[in-house]
Structures are given as C-alpha cells and as structure tokens.
Amino acid sequence: MPTNNPRIAVDAMGGDFGPSVVVPGALNAARQGGCTLLLVGDPDQIEAELAKHDTKGLSIEVVPASQVVTMEDKPSEILRRKKDSSIHVACRLVKEGKADGVVSAGNSGATLACGMFVLGRIEGVERPALASFLPTEKKPVVLIDVGANVDAKPYHLFQFGLMADVLAKTVLGYEKPRVGILSIGEEEGKGNIQVKEAYDIFRKSSLNFLGNVEGRDIFTGDIDVVVCDGFVGNVALKLSEGLATSMGRMLKGELTRSILSKLGTVLAIGALKRFKRLTDYAEYGGAPLLGLSGIVIVCHGKSNIKAINSAVDMASTFVKNDANGRLVRALSRNEELTMFLRTRVAAEGQ
Amino acid sequence: MPTNNPRIAVDAMGGDFGPSVVVPGALNAARQGGCTLLLVGDPDQIEAELAKHDTKGLSIEVVPASQVVTMEDKPSEILRRKKDSSIHVACRLVKEGKADGVVSAGNSGATLACGMFVLGRIEGVERPALASFLPTEKKPVVLIDVGANVDAKPYHLFQFGLMADVLAKTVLGYEKPRVGILSIGEEEGKGNIQVKEAYDIFRKSSLNFLGNVEGRDIFTGDIDVVVCDGFVGNVALKLSEGLATSMGRMLKGELTRSILSKLGTVLAIGALKRFKRLTDYAEYGGAPLLGLSGIVIVCHGKSNIKAINSAVDMASTFVKNDANGRLVRALSRNEELTMFLRTRVAAEGQ
Lengths: 350, 350
What we know:
Two copies of one chain form a homodimer. Chain A has 13 helices and eleven strands. By secondary structure, chain A is α/β, with parallel strands linked by helices. An eleven-stranded mixed beta sheet of chain A has the order 3-2-1-4-11-10-5-6-9-7-8, sandwiched between helices. The radius of gyration of chain A is 21 Å and the shape is globular. Chain A has two domains: 185 residues, Rossmann fold, CATH 3.40.50; 154 residues, Isopropylmalate Dehydrogenase. The mean pLDDT of chain A is 88. At the A-B interface, helix 8, helix 9 and helix 10 of A face helix 8, helix 9 and helix 10 of B.
C-alpha cells in the first residue's frame, strides 16, 4: 500500500555491529525521510542506544524480539527454533499489516528464509532474488541475483530478468530497460551451460534483450539490467565494492605523497568528493529481495551507519512508489513468468 | 630452457586489430627487453606493418602462416582444418625448439586447443588454466582460472591452486603464497557445491590455504593466490578492468569540471599518473596459460599496443626465469597433483 509515512521494521540486532550501527543509521533516515521506525530486537539494547541520540519529533516504536540470529544459524533451524528472532518478528509485522517494509543487515540466508516463509512469494515466482543498484558512468544498473541463489536454473535466470525489468521501470523510471546476461563473451554460445540455455529463453521473450554482456560492460552505463547466478553476482558485487575501496585508498595515498600533490588535492577537493560519492557503495546501502509479497531490503553484515541509512531510505522509497505492488501486479499478469517453466516441465513429462 | 635472448613467437594475426597493433606492441618489447621476435602470419601484412617502424638493430623473423583463426572458429575445427593458422604455427615453433614462448591475442579457445594439442600438458595436469596477475594495494595477486575452463570440477580447482602456487613462488618470488578459494562468504560451507568440495581438498593439502575469500578481499593484498572456476574468474577479471577504466574516466570528468579542480589536477598530475599506472590493466597485458609443456601467454582480443608489449615482456621474463621449467619440475614431482583425483576415481570405482 503506498503511503507518505512508511512504517519500516528494522532488524536492530542484525549486522556485525548490531544496534550501535543499525539504530543511528535508521534514525538518520527517519530524520531525513519522514518514516516511522519499528526497531525490532532486544528492548534493553535498543533503548540504551536510543538514549544516546536526539529522537525528538521522530516516530519510533521498539518491538521486542527475544532471539538473535547468528551468522552460523541454518535457515531451516531459524524457521523452526527462532520464531522470536528479530528478523522473524520484523517479517511478521509486515505480514500482519503493522509495517510496510523490512530492513535487515543480518544473516541473509535467514532473511530470505523468513521472507519466503512469513511473507510468501509472488505467484509464479520460483526463487526470490537479490537485486543491487550499481553506479555506472551514466545511470545506475540493476545487477540480479547478487546472492540469494547459488545454483539457479536457466529459467530462474529468466525470472530474475523479468523481476529486475519491472524494478528498473518502476523505481529507476527506465522506459525499456536493456537487459543482458552476464557471460564471458558477447557472442551467442559463449558461457557455461546455464547461460547458454538462459540465452535461448531471453531471446524468445518480450524483454529488450541485448544478449550476453561481459564484466567490463557493467559500468559503462550502456546496459540497464544484468542477470546472473547468485554466486557470480555476489562475487561481482563484492569485488566491485572491494576494488572501488582499494582504488580510493590508492588514490588517497598517491595524492598525499608530496607537498605539490597535497596542494593540488586541496584545490580539487570538490571534484574528489563528488568522485568518492559516485563510487561509494554505502550510498546505495541495501539490496531489495525481489519476488516476495512484501518489501525486504537486505544489507551487508559489515554495513556502516550510512549504509543502513541508505537502506531504510530505499525501503521508504519502495513503499512510497508502491514498488512491490507494481511488481506483484506486473508479475501476476505476466504469462511469461511461468511459460518457459511450463514448457520445460511439459517437455520433460513426455 | 632459460636464455638471455628469448625467442618469442607472436601470433601477428591475433586480436581485434591484427598486425597493426600486435606488430608495434611486439617491436616495443623487443626494443626494451632484448628478445628475438618470430612474427607469425600473413607475410605481406606483417612486412607492410614492419615498414612503418624503425626496426634497426632488432632481431626479427617473419614466419609465414596462410590461415587466420576467427572468433567464430570452433577449437576442434581449427585443429583439423587450420593447421597453417598463425596460432597453430606459433605453437609448432615452440614444439620444434625454434621458439621459447608464444604470445597470442587471438581466439583464446583456439590458443588453448593448439597449446594442448601441439605442446601437450604437463604430466598429471588435467586442465590447463589461465592465470592473471592483478594489481592490489600491496603486491600483485594471482587469479586463476580466468577463462580456460567454464565447468571445472573441484579437483581441477585444486590443480589450478597448485599451479598458481608454483607461479607465485617462481615469478613473483613469494615464499609461502597464501591461497584462497573465491566464494560468497568466508566461513567453510559457504558457496556452491563445487566450492564446498574444493574447500575440503585444499584443506587437506600442503598449500598455505587460508580458506574462502570474497570478491572484496582480492585487492587488499592480503592474499596471494585466488582460485576460481573459469567462468567466475573471467567475469571477475573483465569486471575489474571495466570498473578501473570507468572509475578513471569518472575521476577525469570530475577533475576537469571546474577551473579550480583543473588547477589542482595540474599540481597533482604526478600522483594521478602513478595512480593510473597502479590500476592500468594494460600494464599487465597477458595471462599465462599454465599446465602446458611450453610458455603460452594469452592476451585480450581488444589488447592495445601497450598490452601486447607487456605480454611479450611477460613471455620473455618467463623464459629468462625458466618459469615453465620450474613449473614442470614442481608439478611432475608433486604427488598431490593427482592424489585427490586418484582418491576420487578409486572411491567411485568401489
């Protein structure tokens, strides 16, 4: 339901730093964007963190959850034994209509499992997938899947493409998103078996399919949606973040090596700051988990305050734009979503 | 055989630009490094290109090859029908002892096929793999495989690790290379099935195995060898190149937007140039194909003059260091190379 005051359920216990990072990040978002926060987790820890900040005028509710999910917990065990964990409770708030979206920096397998089990999938979607917005030389590109599925089938890749196509249209406002499959050569027939079969499905679809794209094409801005398996996408995402960070550090090191370059740096500081923002992944913050009947934004475990801030902003924007409603409507009407799957099952049944 | 005047067979017809880029790139390397060039391909085109350059004092031989391999040619067809192609002839020169190494920017599937068929594999190596040196914040890292095998088995990954370990020791001089598997989480048990099984083999081996590493760890310089499947590695390599290039362009765009930042740029130009060199992939040029009984350096199809120059330099360095001889001796003595493979075959036979 679109609203101007989104209620965002934030998994306050998630991430490597828990409430000490998640709470201030969420508060910043609430100050800027006018959303209501439902901070889910251990009330004592959350209240202790809240006491350190100025929360005047903000709409905040603390929702108790007695259990904490660790990075070692298996998704199946969380569903069975940790029903009062912060992520499980946060998803229930959305299911029960008490919140409009969830943000979590916790164990992403747990978030996926709770999202699927508590919120359910959009009809026809086999596998929810994590989408990520990456900066490019021009407009952002959507990379999907960045980690929800490490063994996706070719028609899963196609479903990821369909979902990201809708996302690019509704959230980024792209008219006819240019869709490509991430592979190791542009020509048809390049890639592993999974990619080759997916190519054939995409080619027959209604998507604006450009064919295979290579790693080097992602950042030029000439492609809008890049589809891949969750293993490849996760490696690609983390590699991009790591390389951008390392390049930033190397640049800083070089610029502060001599008096002359230090002086130059002072004069060019505005440009360098804009460059840093262009390539700062914390600006983008979270990855929407597409294919669920509800808005779920997944953050890095290592998220800092700024990244959590961005992720809560993203959840609010999704609510305000009714992004998930539009995704549900576009996919539920969409015969293509399951057509190739049904064709395949029929062929195998013969 | 180590020598101070390596004879490098250069596939002059390879790459998107053919002799117009390959010949001047090779000439630059010959001028700097003192190697003998055997330029293989269409004599008319090669001579026409040579006529444009000053070749005085250089040791150059043109070796005729009447056929050209295209990007569309299948490796099996090249072996059968294109025995007089430039890459096939170049590999034969090494086999016959007339050259010490091959450099090609042509169809890499063809190079792999000719390398395997003409030169043969090192005993015990199942799958030759492409290694790539990537710049990091500290010393270079070896990424293997960057594209020779898109469907590698877990014990293939282990063989890649063993080969890259030897490479890091002999060419980079690393004493006890820290080896990791590229995955989507550091904990054991993270990743796809291929990675999980490989983890177990690496753990039992004599390698200095650090466990799983993530994309973000590649560029910190805290790991020396990163092992992955050729699909993932190729995506990772091209993505790194693309992102570094795009970041460079974005930085340049920002730095030339205002008078003040332009002035700053002039003052910091030395630092910016050093930064560009740190992240310029053409500096690294080629990827050695490990596991063959001979030195083969594979370049990008899109290689520029500088990249070809670097690749011929790399081939010369490999010859001078007897890198392949040391690889052959280290691997031939190495029981581990086939131990896990034999264990597996025995287990399956029961």
